[in-house]
Amino acid sequence: MKRTTENCSLIRKYGDPGHDGDFCFGFVKSEADDEPCEPCRKCGCLELNQESDVEVEE
């Protein structure tokens, strides 16, 4: 089964962490650590995992 925000066990358990279009903001590790938790880091729906369409000048 493809991982989507509709079938995410964390969203079903804790509620919606927020979205930007089709991409999820994910859940953080703790109040003191704002990095995404491990299940969210591995998820293809996480906004941070999406390639940016902003070009970087070299």
| Overall number of structural domains | 1
Radius of gyration: 13 Å
Main sheet characteristics: 2 strands, antiparallel
The 3D shape can be described as globular
Question: Strand-and-helix sequence, N→C?
Answer: HEEH
Quaternary structure annotation: single chain
Strand order of the largest sheet: 1-2
Beta strands, count: 2
Amount of helix:
10-25%
Describe the model.
The chain is an alpha+beta fold and about 60 residues long. It has one domain. About 15% of the residues lie in helices and about 5% in strands. It has 2 helices and 2 strands. It has a two-stranded antiparallel sheet with strand order 1-2.
Structural features:
two-stranded antiparallel ribbon, 2 helices, 58 residues, alpha+beta
